[in-house]
Design a protein that fits this description.
The complex is a heterodimer of chains A (about 290) and B (about 325).
Chain A (H helix, E strand, L loop, with lengths): L1 H30 L7 H18 L4 H24 L7 H23 L13 E4 L2 E4 H23 L1 H11 L1 H6 L4 H23 L9 H16 L4 H22 L4 H15 L11
Chain B lengths: L2 H24 L3 H26 L7 H17 L4 H23 L4 H21 L1 H4 L14 E3 L3 E3 L4 H23 L2 H11 L1 H6 L4 H27 L9 H14 L5 H16 L6 H16 L3 H29 L1
Antiparallel strand pairs in B: 1-2
Helix pairs in contact in B: 2-7, 2-10, 2-11, 2-12, 3-4, 3-5, 3-10, 4-10, 8-10, 11-12, 11-14
Classes of the chains: A mainly alpha (about 290), B mainly alpha (about 325).
């Protein structure tokens, strides 16, 4: 039983990352209809920028995290402008291929600048606490709490502020939003910036726990796509719940069935679910 | 068709074929010759990707996965003592069969959904290849895969595949075979129905095309070709590992296809030959090369979505329009 709770705890921690990353992806994929396939790679870049700021410039953990979010937000806006906006109105698959180009550039740049080997960010909170027989490190608890705070802040931003409501307006009806004077291009930039900044936050939070490497983003990006499709395109609650479910599924599957195949579960689940519902669990029909 | 007329119309292709057949006498550098052999092999895979992505409009990102299935199939079967000539069709059929089973659920979804679910399948293949140690040798892969068995020929003796020239003729034969199949397929009613599915699936369905069956067929043929190329690769190179099924390989073929020109028969071959050659020339740039390719991919998909071949067709069309219009105005003046 102790093992079970330990795995649940690890699963929630893992799920927190998945939830934040999927949340960012559902904003651009579900709302702007951009299949940002480079999302996982932007996450990876976020971890590297934090690492770089902390080790080379001696930033503290939190200042590095915030700076990384800002830098990634700007990079996200740049990518939206250069890689995706020229393809507006063309078939989805063109944006997808453009995204492959972007992710090759991102991954190779990181390899060229920082080398292909894995690195580790110094852990700011290495202490461990025992609760009901479950070992928890403060860093892991921090990830869980920070994820919840981030999710609530994002929700407040979208529901309560004017820029946030413009995002929702564009999601509901692009032409209608244009008619009432919303600058749709600006909303795209803003959404992209939020999406990549949250990815950077997630990456910086878990970087002290796992190794960071140039290839860490690819698998996570795919999982985020799986969560977004399963949770329903553009559905924020779907992305959050899906993220936590996948995290727990992987931790339990990895603990009880086979750790080597833990990445297979998510992808297998997707193929299985798409065979029953081709548009995802809560998905609407794609036009 | 009279032979002279045939020669007059297709002289370029005949010349190309003669050049291709004479290549072993023209190539002296073993290293470059190896690049040519890989070019032929990857032309086959890119032609397969072209069928499902270029003609049918479904972005399958599991292509290297099926290449890997073919490669592992031939490696395991030939190491178990089966003849290459039996193992190759079996492995290609295995890839096609798994493609059919995977196509049933995934082809019901569209656009990015299909791309993502096939990519998931591709990743599963390479994870399984890395972890099913008894069968696949894990991340170390399989080594010392035998070369294709010699073919006994009456009178001359037997044809073995020790030399590079023989290996080259082997892949060239398969490439020509693939091209013939693709040519037959693309210019048939079936090929037209694939293109109709690509252009507008709902419309294609409403004029009586069974779009799902069309997509499945296209996917199965594409995976058969990928599996076949994988099998030849395993036997000629001699070692395979999970990277043989990696997503990077699919991305490479995607670049070959898009830069060469999707939905043409010449484009994939141009891509598969020209890009590795450019890569060789840019050797001094080391890892920056990939950054250049990423940039090229974005620029091409934005400005020349149909690649080199598309740009050439465009140019031809424009010059024809230009000269055609001039003739017309001349006629107009004469008439007035």
């Amino acid at each position: 039983m102790q093992l079970f709770f330990q795995q649940i705890f690890n699963g929630i921690m893992l799920g927190s990352t998945y939830a934040i990353v999927a949340l960012g992806l559902t904003l651009v994929f579900g709302i702007l209809h951009i299949p940002n396939f480079a999302h996982g790679h932007l996450y990876m870049l976020g971890a590297y920028i934090s690492f770089f700021l902390m080790t080379l410039y001696g930033f503290g953990f939190w200042t590095a995290l915030i700076s990384s979010m800002v830098i990634l937000g700007l990079i996200g806006m740049l990518i939206e402008r250069v890689v995706y906006r020229p393809l507006q109105g063309r078939p989805h698959i063109n944006s997808f291929i453009s995204a492959v180009g972007a992710l090759i550039i991102l991954e190779t740049s990181v390899i060229v600048f920082w080398g292909p080997q894995g690195r580790r960010i110094p852990n700011p909170y290495p202490d461990i606490v025992e609760l009901l027989g479950i070992t928890m490190s403060y860093q892991r608890l921090l990830v869980i709490v920070a994820a919840i705070v981030l999710i609530i802040l994002l929700q407040l931003f979208i529901k309560k502020t004017t820029p946030g409501t413009t995002i929702e307006a564009v999601a509901q009806n692009r032409e209608g939003a244009m008619l009432v004077g919303i600058n749709v291009n600006w909303v795209s930039s803003l959404t992209f910036a939020i999406s990549t900044a949250t990815a950077a936050a997630a990456a910086s939070l878990v970087a002290p726990i796992f190794m960071i490497s140039p290839t860490m983003g690819a698998l996570l990006g795919m999982k985020a796509f799986v969560i977004v499709i399963l949770g329903g395109l553009g559905s924020i609650p779907g992305a959050i719940v899906g993220g936590y479910i996948l995290g727990i599924l992987e931790a339990i599957g990895g603990g009880y069935l086979s750790a080597a195949y833990k990445d297979v579960y998510a992808f297998g689940a997707l193929i299985l679910i798409l065979s029953i519902r081709p548009t995802g669990l809560f998905g609407k029909e794609l036009s | 068709m009279a032979p002279t007329k045939f020669l007059r119309e297709k002289w370029f292709y005949v010349l190309l074929l003669v050049l291709a057949l004479a290549l072993p006498w023209l190539m002296t550098n073993r290293y470059y010759f190896q690049i040519v052999i890989m070019g032929c092999l990857f032309s086959i895979t890119t032609l397969g990707l072209n069928l499902i992505l270029g003609y049918t409009g479904q972005a399958s990102l599991a292509h290297a996965g099926f290449f890997g299935i073919g490669a592992y199939g031939v490696a395991i079967l030939t190491k178990a003592g089966l003849s290459f000539w039996l193992a190759l069709p079996l492995s290609a059929l295995l890839a096609a069969g798994i493609g059919f089973l995977i196509g049933l659920p995934t082809l019901r979804s569209r656009g990015s959904y299909f791309a993502i679910s096939t990519m998931c399948f591709g990743v599963i293949i390479s994870i399984v290849a890395g972890n099913w140690i008894d069968l696949t040798g894990g991340y170390n892969g399989i080594v010392e895969i035998p070369l294709p068995n010699p073919i006994p020929l009456p009178l001359i003796g037997s044809l073995d595949f020790q030399t590079q020239a023989a290996q080259y003729y082997l892949v060239l034969t398969f490439l020509i075979f693939t091209l013939l199949i693709m040519h037959r397929l693309v210019y048939s009613l079936l090929g037209l129905s694939f293109m109709a599915i690509r252009n507008n699936e709902v419309l294609a369905g409403s004029v009586g095309i069974n779009t799902f069956a069309g997509k499945i067929l296209s996917f199965v043929v594409a995976n058969f070709l990928a599996g076949m190329a994988g099998g030849i690769y395993a036997s000629l190179i001699g070692t395979i590992s999970p990277t043989t099924a990696s997503l990077e390989l699919t991305f490479n073929w995607l670049i070959f296809l898009l830069l060469g020109g999707a939905a043409t028969l010449t484009g994939p071959i141009i891509g598969a030959f020209v890009i590795p050659v450019i890569m060789e020339y840019l050797q001094f740039l080391a890892e920056y090369r990939l950054i250049i390719f990423g940039v090229m991919l974005i620029v091409v998909i934005i400005y020349f979505p149909r690649g080199v071949m598309g740009a050439i067709t465009n140019l031809k069309q424009r010059s024809r329009d230009f000269f055609g219009r001039r003739k017309e105005t001349v006629k107009g003046v004469a008439g007035g």
